[in-house]
Amino acid sequence: MNHRDRRKLLLDIINSNHVNTQEKLLSLLAAHGVNATQATVSRDIHALNIVKVSDQMGQTYYAQLKVDSEDQHQRLYDAIHDNVESCTVVQFMNVIKTTPNSSFATVLAGLLDESDLTDIVGTLAGNDTLITISKTNESANAVSNLIKKHIASK
After folding, report:
1. 3-state helix, strand, coil in the chain (%, to 5)
2. Percent of the chain, pLDDT > 70?
């Protein structure tokens, strides 16, 4: 199952159940045939703006915090500004370096995956390096320009 389908299922689960732990969420995903790690679910929770809320009885559970697209874009731009060191275009790809040893590349990959940027068809992230893949060199250049526009002046 790809990440978009898994995240849709995750939202369906939290919208129809009062899930209060990641362990319970993992077991409900497994019941639907999805084997995911705690780290994956944690990234999904972050990418989907899922937070813990309380009901009238004081019980906490996961719910999605609604964010409009303007806020989502600003969140992406702030993340780039605060954590991206450099961006290099290599044909139809971008190699993006984030703060060393920060593990932020995976967070940024999630933000880019969930964005409405049509110039990116996929991402691949390590600890502090992220690769975006585009269909064309022109699309890769557009992504690079967006990243460079929001990188903090070092």
Report:
1. 50, 20, 30
2. 95
